[in-house]
Amino acid sequence: MILFEFSESIQPELPVDLKLLEAWLMRCARRHRYEISFVRYYFTDNREIVQINREVFNRTYPTDVISLYIPIFSQKLNGEIFISIEQVVENSREYQVEYGMEFLRVAVHGLLHLCGYDDQTEEQRLLMRRYEDECLSLFS
Predict the structure, then answer these.
(1) Domains detected in the chain
(2) 54-80 residues labelled b (16+ CB within 10 A) or e (exposed)
(3) Residue 135, Cβ neighbours under 10 Å: how many?
(4) Distance of alpha carbon 121 from its chain centroid, rounded?
(5) pLDDT tens digits in sequence order for the chain, 140 residues long
(6) Cβ count within 10 A of residue 29
(7) What is the pTM of this model?
(8) How far apart are CA 92 and CA 67, in angstroms?
(9) Closest C-alpha among 2, 3, 4, 45 to residue 26
(10) How far apart (Å, rounded) are the C-alpha atoms in residues 117 and 109?
(11) Is residue 42 within 8 Å of 84, Cβ to Cβ?
(12) Residues 106 and 28: beta-carbon distance below 8 Å
């Protein structure tokens, strides 16, 4: 099950229907040999994501996505994914990509973190980007 929630501070216009988004994210998880037990996506703004980033990682800057894995030892994913819609919009401008494509990339990026993939090194970033691209090709 995937739950989508929105901060009171934003009124986002998401570029995709939530049912389509949920079905696509489920396909992406299965592609990486996981089933989703419970994942909550929480859409917010930069102010709130900075607060979460500070509390969890002791970082004081905005980020587009924060994934928090809830450890249950199985091939079932449980966790929370926080996405700053404000940062996704900024990313789309900076990288000169359509907002909808950047939104999907960030959504699946958070899910891939729950699957155990990291992006701390250049090698990890390249692998993460490859997996993001593979998942984006599944979107319909």
Answers:
(1) 2-137 (3.40.390.30)
(2) eeeeeeeebbbbbbeeeeeeeeebbbb
(3) 23
(4) 19
(5) 999 999 988 877 788 999 999 999 999 999 999 999 999 999 999 999 999 999 999 999 999 999 998 877 677 899 999 999 999 999 999 999 999 999 999 999 999 999 999 999 999 999 999 999 999 999 96
(6) 23
(7) 0.94
(8) 20
(9) 2
(10) 9
(11) no
(12) no
The pair of three-digit structure tokens given for residue 119, joined into one six-digit string: 């992006």
Helix, strand, coil in percent for the chain, rounding step 5: 50, 20, 30
The per-residue pLDDT for 25 is 98
- pLDDT tens by residue, 22-39: 999 999 999 999 999 999
Scanning the structure block, which residue is given the tokens 């570029």? 15
DSSP H helical segments within the chain, as ranges? Answer: 18-31, 46-57, 85-94, 99-114, 122-137
Which residue type is seen at 3? L
Q: Report the amino acid identity of residue 46.
A: N
Query: Measuring CA to CA, which residue among 90, 83, 98 is closest to residue 48?
Result: 83
| Amino acid, res. 4 | F
